[in-house]
Amino acid sequence: MGSPSPTRILTVGTGAIGAYYTWRLQQAGNCVVTTVCRSNYEVVSSKGIEFITTAWGEGPHIFKPDHVVKTVPSETYDFIVVCMKVLPHVYSIPDIIAPAVKASPNASIVLIQNGIGIEDPIKARFPRNPILSSIAYIGVTQNEPGIIYHSGTVHRLAVGLFEPIEGVDGNSALEAFGDICKQGGIETIVTDDIASYRWRKLIWNAAMAPICILSDLWTVSDVFANEKYYEVVLTVKSEIAALAIALGYSIPPGAVEMSMATSKKLADGYKASMVIDLEEGRPMEVEVILTNPIKVAEEHNLTHLIPTWYQLYKDLLKYLEVRQKL
């Protein structure tokens, strides 16, 4: 008996998060990883990616993908891992991953992304491929191509099957992916309620970005040091949690307090990713982190649960509109 054939993994979007999790998947053993790199292609293809991290003992930690490509190949994979930002007004993720999905009718599509409603366009385009919806809990940044800084030691991943597909064994795919993550040393939560994890993560993302921007304080530490805006953060996070509970999602008692405590522990100067995108003139994930959940609240006549957040959202849209005209 020969050894089992390796698991073939494609990562689309090899920024900080994509690179980190793909590195750990490769470390699980018996995995062949291909990474799609754009801005960092030259560096990654020649030198690999260096991780500055204290999570894995003494370095240097160098990740050399088995294959580095500039565009999505028309080849067969077991898992197509998408770590791009969700920017439907800028590009179509289904269009980008289509060559690999068409060549891999049995592949699972793993979405390691933030936001609400991110799975729907993938399901619409590829209804027979299992979607493994995933939430990353990690602080990583790529300040220069090929060098990734990992803040702290947390690298948790919650992963679950988005929806069952008749005649397709999505649960086996979920179990297999979860096992690879665990073998790679990732703290992995395999759940049958990934939608609730999405809303739990939203408590942080959807509150902090608009408050950091509209307060003109920009960093989480400065917002928390300001008594007025500290109270606004607490209010907005509580509203988002109340909305999620009203929609039937499982939000554990103390989730808001835990989110506040996590925020306090962040390094001075830490900025939400949407804030960094705004500062650097890049498109922001407004649609999936703010607009989509707000629309859900409107559709269910639940906006009375989110008065402060609802107003912040409207104010942020006006602010961005004015800023674009400058």
Automatic annotation (TrEMBL):
Gene Ontology MF annotations: 2-dehydropantoate 2-reductase activity
GO process annotations (BP): pantothenate biosynthetic process
Keyword Methyltransferase among UniProt keywords: no
Keyword Oxidoreductase found: yes
EC number, as in UniProt: 1.1.1.169
Function: Catalyzes the NADPH-dependent reduction of ketopantoate into pantoic acid.
Protein name: 2-dehydropantoate 2-reductase
